[in-house]
């Protein structure tokens, strides 16, 4: 991994610091056709695309009770136990995100905000090589806590028409109502428009490849969607007190996800930077995903040297990364200066994997600099609010002048009239 | 306005009930070019488009202190007073939406959610014929309450290079920091990428025409955006106890906004339906915006007859309209059955204009059926959350097995390794 000066103006460093996540137009045409086909031809279209993309012929998409039972039987008990531990921790953190409404009452009038769960939610869960049961927990549990009645999950089948066992176990453990063997843009389209077999949902959440992301973007408005996630990223803020071996391990953990993953260190210590490089060379050969890691380091890896640690913080806030790890002398104080980040992991013994699997915080986080304005998935993403207003005749009479003045100022005469008409004689 | 049976399967009624708000592709090409031009050429491009679309040549876009002072001098005191009343009510309702973080602490570990305001927000406020100072209040005040430091407003100038006085007054009253005379897709692009004069923001909110909406959609991801609003709509749920004259007035108030606005009545009373028709014919000639109202009624107006009032509620929940008015015998009870709506106005004396100008609830509401999953603009739209995790060595040792089990199950060996390495001898 290359060392850069923070003042470096090269394109390569700029590409790493200013990640952005703009939709690719190349796949848009393909995805539009798929969506249209599913909208028009329903399950038949879904079946055709499943054959084409997943290599299996399915007539019935829904996972049966027998399949769930078999999944539990075929899953190691220690995996089930670990999922149960993770579930409990996720619940403990997310339960505090519940939102309640409020009502401001006066004589003869009230204004109110009612909070309700979204009725039906679809979870998109990737399958195949990247089957992550933890993703099921992270997406389903906040929905369940919000009170969503119907939590539908879709995930692509393998060539045998099966779903990864641990995904089914995680779905059952989380409280997902129904699981369907369908993935890709066709799955997103089925959730957005509904088919005979697959219910139409109100919102779709969950990660996916660029076809899935593009499909979500295109059906957004027809249904709600969560954020469009880009490739994952970590920035490690470290000073000379940090352990270079731990940092090297954490950089590799990030990079193994994806050749597009970004692993960055910000430090004021050249000596640490060089030690990290040497630890990487010592550790990389033991990695099963060495090829991916090296490619990711090449493309989106950097050790950036700053004059002072405050400069490092400034760069972090500009980057607004998905994950930040802070390994400095006073990591808690240092972390308080970070205003733009999806999640922050403090100290030598909080590698990011604590957040992925154990701590209880959500690992669905804003990427590509969107932490400037976006947040991790939460219970709020599964709630909606309705405003309620009640005025009596007396209340309206007090409000009359203000309403008429503003409506007339805006040239909306019928708005003013809708008030005045209520005070005409005979009404 | 035509009367339909709720069982009617006609295309016309279906068009009215199933409004959707899909982006038009026709304008996308134009808007993409504008965005690219502003991104590359900054203020020069903005200036050229302002000349082209707004018919005025501007070198400096920012509104000066003198212009603000003049706006106050030239605005009627009763308008200023009305805006101040509205502001106070909006603050009173929105202050309750503030969100605080939380921290769950145990020995040697904590998990935390920190809530912070978004740093810089851009408000897009339409100008020209539709200059609505109330829209400034509704967009700016939640941002100010959230604690956003820099609230930037843009709005298109008129041919004399001026901004409507009441918009400037509303901006000053709300606490907007800076106002720029720029509109359209070029304004959105300037906020998304920044120019020499116009600051880059983190999120853009506010309504606009299809060019503005398309531009917002295209820069979404680079910056955050609020919902893309479609044409406005009201559904009035009424039984035979309702006053047909009030209903006629409220339908017209909705329709005067826009030829695309939708005004719908759901009732079980044919006699009420017919009286509404006759009240409309009596009242419509006094309307300055008669032509718009008639066109809107023609295209998206309907009185729909249901067997029972419960059927009416079912249709409302399917439509998920922006505004619902309930004028029935027990309107509060009836309103409780409505689960999908942006805002609900209860009883004979709560016309929707109470919510637009006075009550304090937000009038930026989800349209086109999106109330199934979206909500009115609120303080939450200007806040973001960061998760923080701290584990000590001891805490991590307890978590170790769970993390390793799940990471290995997911094939993410470097994730497991990032934990195990911390417990190797010598570390």
UniProtKB/TrEMBL annotation, chains A, B:
CDD domains from the UniProt entry: Histidinol_dh (cd06572)
Cofactor(s) it depends on: Zn(2+)
One Pfam family recorded for the sequence: Histidinol_dh
GO biological process, one term: L-histidine biosynthetic process
GO MF term (any one): histidinol dehydrogenase activity
rRNA processing in keyword set: no
GO cellular component labels: cytosol
Matching HAMAP family: HisD
NCBIfam families named in the record: hisD
Family the entry assigns: Belongs to the histidinol dehydrogenase family.
Protein name: Histidinol dehydrogenase
Organism: Gottfriedia endophytica
